[in-house]
Amino acid sequence: MAELQEVQITEEKPLLPGQTPEAAKTHSVETPYGSVTFTVYGTPKPKRPAILTYHDVGLNYKSCFQPLFQFGDMQEIIQNFVRVHVDAPGMEEGAPVFPLGYQYPSLDQLADMIPCILQYLNFSTVIGVGVGAGAYILSRYALNHPDTVEGLVLINIDPNAKGWMDWAAHKLTGLTSSVSEMILGHLFSQEELSRNSELIQKYRNIITHAPNLENIELYWNSYNNRRDLNFERGGDITLKCPVMLVVGDQAPHEDAVVECNSKLDPTQTSFLKMADSGGQPQLTQPGKLTEAFKYFLQGMGYMASSCMTRLSRSRTASLTSAASIDGNRSRSRTLSQSSESGTLPSGPPGHTMEVSC
């Protein structure tokens, strides 16, 4: 922590009636693996963890999370928690391009930067929200520092290292596709890319014309060189905190998230498969994800008075037996969403529920 820079900024965003703009403080702190930049919104709340986010490859905290945290219903959450948005090294706005030959940190080393952030802020615990590579980084951090993580929301996580077949496919794709196109294929489904919606055009333009594209490629390479997290249900290597796994139906990482769900403790894990959300649910379905996040926080004992409005028990709810548990906070839930409206169920513990929203 030899060097520290702090900049005061205020962002413009859509506000609800009666709201005032949030002040954001951006900090850069030195770690054993280089400098890392993070932005803090709000002030610490007594006896409450911070919400800490980590973005995916090709994005930064704004392009990955802004639609979610600016969503109207999310304001109830952000009023109750201080937020820390971490940018991977070289991904922050205005970041200079790393010099040729720069050794970019591995995902494990990126996870090891987080304690420096929490030490500087004097935060003791967090609830992590990560997407893709960011979900992996937060999972690795939680394995190494379980006492500091109260909960995790992991979107599009792939806990597995690339196998030989994956590497061969990656190399072949690299011969015919640019780095930006490969990253877009990581972020979005082929169906979304084929439709070339306004959202896809926006993010294709962001990534293709990024002034720090060389840095993005380094982060991309670190992601593709990740180690296996080695999750094992009932084993020593597992996430000890409540976890909500999220993936879009037909998303590029659907199979990986399903496999991850099978390896985690079913009494601590919720699995949310979102229809009509594509590869980036936090961008395409911020309302549904906000309601699920509120429900997740309630299960952890926070925001007990929050009103649920969007997700409801399906008329065709199917309940199947699962492992028995102790206490209301230990539940295994699988939530499969469609595009109707209602409220999330609180069904019996130890059951799998099919839910529409």
From TrEMBL:
UniProt keyword Cytoplasm, yes or no: yes
Species this protein is from: Daubentonia madagascariensis
Any single GO CC term annotated in Swiss-Prot or TrEMBL for this entry: perinuclear region of cytoplasm
Superkingdom, taxonomy of origin: Eukaryota
Keyword annotations of the record: Cytoplasm, Developmental protein, Differentiation, Neurogenesis, Wnt signaling pathway
Full protein name: Protein NDRG2
Major localisation: other
Family membership noted in the UniProt record: Belongs to the NDRG family.
Keyword Cytoplasm annotated: yes
Biological process annotations from GO: cell differentiation; nervous system development; Wnt signaling pathway
Compartments reported by the entry: Cell projection, Growth cone; Cytoplasm, Perinuclear region
Task performed by this protein: Contributes to the regulation of the Wnt signaling pathway. Down-regulates CTNNB1-mediated transcriptional activation of target genes. May be involved in neuron differentiation.
A Pfam family the protein falls into: Ndr
Subunit annotation: Interacts with CTNNB1.
SUPFAM superfamilies per the UniProt record, alphabetical: alpha/beta-Hydrolases
Disordered, as annotated region: 1-28, 320-357
Cited InterPro entries: AB_hydrolase_fold, NDRG
